[in-house]
Write a structure and sequence with these properties.
This protein is 43% helix and 27% strand. The protein has 6 helices and 6 strands.
Length: 211
């Protein structure tokens, strides 16, 4: 009900930093090009503030959040669509004009969003939160996914490719926050144990590393 504390925000940021690193690696490998994702901000907003930030032309999808029986929203700038589609169709990843994607491009973007969901699941697995892609929300339908006065966590990432850059935004409802914040803090504070064998193996591997 109140503001997110610095300790809680630090825990949230660590999870989203992991997501950004994993997405950079796996989506870059899939596209076979330079692809960088970086966490820009994580802030508490009411849902109406989040919807006002979404441009008129945007790619917005709903995501089911299990086991909490809630919906989240993920939005990507359409500026990223032309270079991604160009790469996957054999091009070099050239930027293009801002427009609605065609049916073929929608299928390609669906594959991209499935990779995004997979990496979200890896990052948020420690708190037991699972993301499942629902559908693309056409027009302003996404404004009805949550009450406009609902408190949310809005996480923004910057995504960069050689010829384009844009943002990827994730919006989670307050009911999810109440659950995951407790789990994030307890997971972070839990002592990490490493066996003697694991430490010995790591030391042996590091002796062979070249700098």
């Amino acid at each position: 009900a109140g503001q997110i504390s610095n300790e809680q925000m630090q825990a949230i940021s660590s999870v989203n930093d992991m997501f950004a690193r994993n997405l950079t690696h796996h989506l870059g490998a899939w596209l076979r090009t330079e692809f960088k994702t970086a966490l820009v901000s994580a802030e508490q907003l009411v849902y109406s503030e989040f919807t006002e930030r979404i441009p008129e032309l945007a790619y917005v999808c709903s995501a089911r959040l299990d086991p909490l029986d809630a919906l989240g929203v993920i939005q990507m700038d359409l500026a990223m669509v032309p270079p991604i589609v160009d790469l996957l169709l054999g091009g070099v990843g050239r930027a293009g004009i801002l427009r609605e994607p065609t049916d073929i491009e929608e299928d390609i973007l669906l594959s991209v969003m499935e990779i995004v969901m997979r990496e979200l699941n890896v990052a948020w697995q420690p708190v037991g939160l699972k993301f499942a892609l629902e559908k693309r929300e056409a027009g302003s339908e996404f404004s009805r996914l949550m009450p406009l006065r609902e408190k949310t966590l809005c996480v923004s990432f910057e995504i960069r490719m050689p010829e384009a850059q844009g943002t990827l935004n994730l919006c989670l409802p307050a009911m999810v926050l109440n659950t995951i914040l407790r789990r994030l803090i307890s997971e972070r504070d839990r002592p990490r144990r490493r066996s003697f064998e694991a430490r010995l193996k790591m030391a042996t591997m590091m002796e062979e590393a070249q700098f």
